[in-house]
Amino acid sequence: MSRSSSNARGKARFIGVASASILIIVMVLALVGLGRLRMPVTPDFEGTGNGVTELVEITPGSSVSALGPELVERGIVKSNAAFQKAAGANDKASTVTPGFYRLQGQMSAVSAVEALVDPANKVQLLTVNGGSTLNDVTVVGGGTRFGIFSDIAALACGDKPDSNCVTVAKLADAAATTDPVELGVPAWAVDAVTARGDDPRRIEGLIAPGSYVVNPHMSATEILTDLVTRSAAVWDKTGITAKAEATGLTPYQLLTAASLVERESPAGEFDKVARVIINRLNTPMRLEFDSTVNYDLADQEVATTDDDRARVTPWNTYAKDGLPDTPIASPSVEALEAMENPADGDWLFFVTIDKDGTTVFNNTFDEHLSDTQKALDAGVLDSKRDQSAAGGDSPSDTADPDQAPPAQ
């Protein structure tokens, strides 16, 4: 056999082997491609949403991942599998805190997770401080201290209010006209609230200080019911019913007295002011607190006028015996506990004698007058009112000294 014939056969075998290998590779690739076509694709929406706001809640102890089934059910994401994959790939997902978040309908899973980790999409909390009131307060010589109604409306409406927004007017109407039981008013306060008729302030003091999530999709009645119901649980945890009996007051009266402690007391003196209140009620003598005069005034400050103190209102303890008809603010748990456990003492008077908040407690009126002069000399009771507009009175000369500067 010639060398050329042998080479030809070798080349033919090589070409045959190569062709077979190529055919096998092509078949494998075809099978892989066919397998991929047959593999299920994880359903997912495209884009950042349809523009329709959806509010979702991450509850305490929960996580972003736990939202998956709910988001699918509500049409916010297409599939739980896509959402779980997106949540697992986002390092910030584990840092999301409980609260309400604004998403949109029909979001891609990645967009939904990115929205949840963006702090701008979290609904801000309603913060109620000790001494907060339902209505706004205008401070003489100062600004406006916004009330609980205004704070709720600001959170519910944001910077783009519409006709469905929960406004201050809607909240006031709900407070005035909704059955107290429906609002979640505790049983021991229902009669007192009902007695106030259609005054929106009839639920004053029944929203406890704290931080609350306000669901802007709720109605005014639903929001107030949520706040009052949760607050009732706060008050009950203090043992308010049993402890009220020990003080000789009803639970509602105890809450009302605690609101005076909140508005009258400097820090660290709650239990002593509570004792003064109880001593005066037991003497008996009128409480004569400027905070109760101020509650019904359009403009408020520590120094009240003779005319202010002469006004007969359901709250003015210069013009009426006993406690105000309702609380004058939201008392803190600390103020309520001070009324439940007042300090030991015979004090009937107290006065803040300097602008550092130093408060002196006295048993006799003569001692009290002496310390009151110190307060006047220190300018604690100076008025910022326009004296000509006030009719020429000098409120600082006649102001009730039993008044610490109220919390602003």
From TrEMBL:
<keyword id="KW-0472">Membrane</keyword>
<dbReference type="Pfam" id="PF02618">
    <property type="entry name" value="YceG"/>
</dbReference>
<keyword id="KW-1003">Cell membrane</keyword>
<comment type="similarity">
    <text>Belongs to the transglycosylase MltG family.</text>
</comment>
<dbReference type="GO" id="GO:0005886">
    <property type="term" value="C:plasma membrane"/>
</dbReference>
<feature type="region of interest" description="Disordered">
    <location>
        <begin position="377"/>
        <end position="408"/>
    </location>
</feature>
<comment type="function">
    <text>Functions as a peptidoglycan terminase that cleaves nascent peptidoglycan strands endolytically to terminate their elongation.</text>
</comment>
<dbReference type="GO" id="GO:0009252">
    <property type="term" value="P:peptidoglycan biosynthetic process"/>
</dbReference>
<dbReference type="GO" id="GO:0008932">
    <property type="term" value="F:lytic endotransglycosylase activity"/>
</dbReference>
<keyword id="KW-0961">Cell wall biogenesis/degradation</keyword>
<feature type="transmembrane region" description="Helical">
    <location>
        <begin position="12"/>
        <end position="34"/>
    </location>
</feature>
<feature type="site" description="Important for catalytic activity">
    <location>
        <position position="264"/>
    </location>
</feature>
<keyword id="KW-0456">Lyase</keyword>
<keyword id="KW-1133">Transmembrane helix</keyword>
<dbReference type="InterPro" id="IPR003770">
    <property type="entry name" value="MLTG-like"/>
</dbReference>
<protein>
    <recommendedName>
        <fullName>Endolytic murein transglycosylase</fullName>
        <ecNumber>4.2.2.29</ecNumber>
    </recommendedName>
</protein>
<keyword id="KW-0812">Transmembrane</keyword>
<dbReference type="GO" id="GO:0071555">
    <property type="term" value="P:cell wall organization"/>
</dbReference>
